[in-house]
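Model: You mentioned two targets. I'll fold them one after the other.
Researcher: Yes, keep them separate.
Model: Target one:
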Amino acid sequence: MKYSCTLLIVLSVFFVHAQKNAEKWDLRKCVDYAMKNNISVKQAEVQARITAIQAKQLELFKYPSVSFNTNLGPQFGRSIDPTTNTYSNTELFAQSYGVQGGIQVYNWGRIKNGIAASQFNVQSALADVEKAANDVALNVAVYYLQVLASNENININKIQIQQTQARLNDTKKRVDAGALPELNLLELQSQLASDSTALMANINAFDQNVLALKALLNIDAAQPFVVDTPPIDKIPLENLLDLMPEAVYKMALTNQPLQKSIDFKMKAAEKNILSTKAQLYPTISGSYSLGSTYNSKAVNFLNGNKIQYFDQINQNFRQSLGLGIQVPIFSNGQIRSNYLQSKENLKVVQLQKDQADQTLKNNIYTAYTNAVAAMQKFYAGKKQVEAAEKVYEFSVKRYEIGLLGTLDLLINQNNMVKAKIQQLSNQYDYVFRMKLLEFYKGQGLKL
């Protein structure tokens, strides 16, 4: 018994010391940190950057393409003279330069609509980042409230131990004086050991909840970490009448990131249909080229002198412009297949939107129903705690005058503690259910 009490004291001192020396985190700080450091959010951000790069690459198709090339080397045997374009058996050293490029003049909006689709995809990816952050924020709130609840359980256990210890001290005096049998003292000692075990179990549960919250925040498990514990009664809650499910649903359709993401995907799919359809029609393209050559054996026909390098480059300079039309006649059905597939892709996204909206509505109505039930359970629990406290108060008075046995007193004390712990659970459940409705309404998470 002495060993258990000593261990309990050491654990309690360590627990309090750790809380005093570590930095405190409130819900807002936890959520902000998680949105920047959670791995799921980072993955969504990487995907958004990739989508933005792809969109930027498509946008560059609006501009002319340009390429440069040069070739140099000796020629042997019968070959074409690069400057006269005639066959020659003369061994020579030649170099050529060229710049080529092209631009699509008209393509029935294929590039324009492709760019528009890619920009909508970027907006969708950004909404996906927001969704990942929202999901993380909601999970942070769940773990945060679990930490608060387990901390309150610890406080209740401490009060229970104090009450049991007070009864134990008083009973010991009476047993020593011969006013009560020793059995009463043994029963209280057993209860104190049970209370101490419950406290250690709740401290362990608290530590496990903190570790789970750290993992969600992507914080090293060894780093000191203390959750700020605002009084549960001080957490502001909206009136339930202001959170009617149909009204919340209409707001959620415009503020929830999943709905935003799918809306952008639908717009992108519509633009993709126009882009793929344009491939069925002719494309008008423009081209241009610049070039020049050098021949180590080139001579001036008038005086027989060798023509210098830069003089040749200048004399042999050439340029050309062209306009071409490409008409798709038969491509093994690939172009038409792409067009038909793009139309089906739009239907897929429309079904995704219908499913997401239906799920959102069901979630909101379920959240509202749960909130109503949690509120009723919370207020009913208040009465249960009040009744258990009165029973315990009467039990103490009867025990002190010898009209109630120790076992009955402990049963009433345990019933009171159980009622308080259950009511604490009811209260945190009620707060979370209300905060979930506020979250769907678009007010974020705040305690």
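Model: Target two:
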Amino acid sequence: MKILISSVGTATSVNLIKYFKKLNDYIIGTDINPMGYTAGSMMVDKFFTVPYAVDENYISSIVEIIRNNDIELFIPVNDTEVYIVSKEIDQIPCKCIVPDTATIDLLRDKFECSQRMIKSGIDVPSILECDDMGLVRILRDKVGVGSSGISFFERGIGIKSYDKTTQFIQEKVSGEEYTVDVLSDCDGKPLYIIPRKRIEVKSGVATKVLVDDEKGIIDRVKIILETIKLPGFSNIQFIKDRVGKYWFIEINYRFSGCGAATLATCPGYLDVFKDIVLGKEINTELNHDVRWNSIVTRYYEEFVYNADIS
């Protein structure tokens, strides 16, 4: 299959490139950086530099690459790219599986998404109407991506001021951090729900994880997916506290940064995804080939590009 993968300067894209190449797929990559300035640009079969996703020429650049290279599948990786593509999905002349814009708007609004979880019976860290210095707290932007727009406040330290129209205060919960990699068909039916627990983190990146058959989390993700349709790749974050309670943190509408752990322990993961793309009927059971209780460790690898910078 000829696949276009965006943002090849990210670890997320590198993971996808590496595992699609093992399936002998032909990979074309894009990034805002020129050739040789990212490892991903040297791992693909063909590379193009494109504008930022917010640039007015981004979609037309992607469309031109797809048409000129007979692309069968486009996978936008960066959060902003996925959002922009969802708005212009009718212009994309190949298969591209992303949630609809209304769903992404809900997931980007951390406050509204948390309210939706509460209504679904999912435990969410307490949202505070006013500051409480007796608690460890998080000040969050209502609309944000990942860890951006988040500030932490220890007990006894007050939040001097904040804009209640754009921010909210939430109690910070502590415990074991889980990211759940989800793969669903185009109707949002989950085919994989794979929790992995962070064992080691360096510079904010998980370098050692346990692929963990945590049934309590899997059951909660099933509930979430009954109310929010997430076709294709997504990931959901939880914290399991010291008494075994599961707390919902957020949903990301893309392949995860440490998704390589899932790809390494689920031999059929990308084959199932490609079957979804091709519209094939999939009769496998949920998580049918996951190698549970696997510890996955990661390392860096160097690439050298002989650039002519004269």
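Researcher: Noted. Anything on target two?
Model: The first strand starts at residue 2 and ends at 5.
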